[in-house]
Design brief:
Number of domains: 2
Distance between the termini: 32 Å
Shape: globular
Number of strands: 29
Helix content: 10-25%
Largest sheet: 8 strands, antiparallel
Length: 392
């Protein structure tokens, strides 16, 4: 935990709600200033900024610190989402403002050495920073927000801890990326740059909001047995006693050389959880014939080869349901949507030619978000899903 990164801010603006911003300028300083102008950042309670790794992370840090200090968190992505749909090389943002919004932010560094002992009192500290006791946290008013280094392999440790500490409060988040390089993400907050870290926020929003979560995958009749794993379960070495790539290719009826990240995006692996598929996305095949996974699996576990339903229509229905839950007057739009879209969904849409159609579904709302290396929902670190928050 980084105590200096604490941010607790209240504002006196007479109205309240959400703003979104988007800039495609290639000059980082111009783009960041433009997004912060869109967000009216200096008068906002919390600013969330998501930027392409093509931009200068140190300039992002400098501009944010100079204009809003602790009142912002920024992270790198695998592609950005805005009212323009999907984009690359851009910067997007979302701000929350007004007297109905409170926020506390902190950084958990060094995720590769993560110990939960120092975090035991963190949920209570977050509550106090927004003027609440932990017992006062209300699922209709409060939500945990996570931005986690997607290369850390620590998401599935953090989420259960916070949900155990506050089981009635929703948790939603996305895993930061560095495009598709998988080398080092960047997280900026309060004048500092981090990698191998997580930003955690507790939000209080006294207007309607709904948590978004869905995946569009379905089971097939093809089941595989895990017989060897490494790297904490995130490298699948052998399936059914054979090389994972060869066994997976055989299940798809293709040659091992045909296994690409575009193909694995359409056919991830998964297991049954509460009657529905829990997806384990395949990041990439390795030169040694293994499959790198975005979620851990265990030796002896049975995995299903999943296949997609209609990605675009499922997404349309998921967002429409989130809006319906806000109880807005007929025809009204949410004030904003924060979205975390798995990079595997993006690859799937790119592969099957529906990328523009999927982007159009997002663009019908005032949205800001990014393609992620995994998503958080409740106590779970999920894959191949869409998570987020719709703000009324």
């Amino acid at each position: 935990m980084n105590p200096s990164a604490d941010a607790t801010v209240e504002t006196d603006i007479s109205d309240a709600g959400v703003r979104v911003g988007f800039r495609s300028d290639t000059d980082t300083e111009t783009a960041v200033h433009g997004v912060l102008d869109d967000l009216e950042a200096e008068s906002s309670t919390l600013n969330l900024v998501f930027f392409s790794p093509d931009h200068d992370e140190d300039m992002v840090r400098q501009v944010l610190d100079g204009r809003v200090g602790a009142n912002a968190v920024a992270g790198t992505t695998a592609g950005e989402i805005s009212t323009e749909g999907f984009s690359q090389g851009t910067i997007v943002g979302l701000s929350l403002y007004g007297p109905d919004v409170r926020a506390a932010v902190d950084i958990v560094p060094n995720l590769d050495e993560l110990s939960l002992v120092p975090l035991v009192h963190l949920p209570e500290q977050f509550a106090r920073r927004i003027g609440r006791d932990r017992s006062e946290l209300d699922p209709d008013r409060h939500v945990w927000l996570f931005l986690v280094d997607g290369l850390s392999k620590s998401e599935d440790l953090l989420t259960p801890f916070f949900m155990q500490a506050s089981p009635d409060i929703n948790l939603v988040g996305g895993s930061l990326s560095d495009g598709e390089a998988y080398e080092q993400t960047q997280l900026a907050h309060f004048g500092r740059l981090y990698n191998n870290a997580a930003a955690i926020a507790l939000l209080e929003y006294d207007r309607p909001f709904s948590v978004i979560h869905g995946n569009h995958m379905k089971f097939t009749d093809r089941w595989l047995k895990v017989t060897s794993v490494s790297s904490g379960g995130r490298c699948l070495e052998r399936i059914n006693g054979h090389s994972a790539v060869h066994a997976y290719a055989d299940a798809l009826g293709v040659a091992p050389d045909d296994i690409t990240t575009d193909l694995t995006a359409i056919h991830p692996l998964g297991f049954r959880f509460r009657g529905r598929p829990f997806v384990c996305s395949i990041i990439e095949p390795t030169d040694q014939g293994a499959l790198r996974l975005a979620n851990p699996v265990h030796s002896g576990e049975r995995l299903n080869v999943l296949e997609p339903t209609d990605l675009v229509e499922h997404t349309r229905a998921t967002l429409a349901d989130a809006v319906a839950q806000l109880g807005l007057p007929a025809g009204d739009s949410p004030q904003g949507m924060l979205l975390f879209n798995c990079i595997a969904r993006y690859r799937e849409a790119r592969q099957n030619g529906t990328l523009d159609a999927l982007g159009d579904v997002f663009a019908q709302y005032p949205v800001a978000g990014f393609n992620s290396l995994g998503e958080q929902h409740g106590a779970m670190h999920t894959n191949h899903s869409l998570t987020g928050i719709a703000f009324g």
